[in-house]
Amino acid sequence: MRVCIVYSSCTGNTRKVAEAIGAATGLPCHSVRHAPDPADYDCLAVGFWVRKGQPDARAQRYMRRIYGKPVFYFGTLGAWPQSAHALRCAQAAEALLQENGNTVLDGFLCQGKVNPRVIAASQRKGTHPMTPARLARLQEAARHPDGEDLQAAGQSWRHCLEAAAAVFHQQGATYAQEKS
């Protein structure tokens, strides 16, 4: 089974998660800027950073090129990973992948440092005032992804890859029986 890990990263958070899942399975990671054609692979892991509740634009462009594949998505965001915002982000990623007939195996989101320019821009626009709760969340996000996040991402990816390999093996056996 041919497997590919592709990621888009702004501050290095998503790259760290990609490298962790790559290390967990011995697979190389590719920046979305230099990513191979998804059609050449049987299973993909696609990583993104969250921008305005969605995978970032580069990741979205790559995700739209994936057709009929089992896919694991992973991403980083400044919000709490169990928040309603994170749930909406996960749903957006899944919907985008499912548009082209892909099977979403699972997903993984964790906090990550928010680009200081993004924080400054939101302050200038007045869209996200710096409340004590927001400041605490951003300070916590700046400590992620941490070792626990990276281990959990690797474990999630390994489980998905094992499941995909079993399905791929079963489909291969069925195909071989049909040919005989």
From TrEMBL:
Q: Pfam families per the record?
A: Flavodoxin_3
The residues covered by the Flavodoxin-like domain are 5-153
Q: Which InterPro entries match?
A: Flavodoxin/NO_synth, Flavodoxin_CS, Flavoprotein-like_sf
Q: Which SUPFAM superfamilies match?
A: Flavoproteins (SSF52218)
> What domain of life does the UniProt record list for this protein's source?
Bacteria
Q: Name one GO molecular function term.
A: FMN binding
Q: Which cofactor does it need?
A: FMN
* Name under which the protein is recorded: Flavodoxin
Instruction: Give the organism, scientific name.
Output: Desulfovibrio desulfuricans
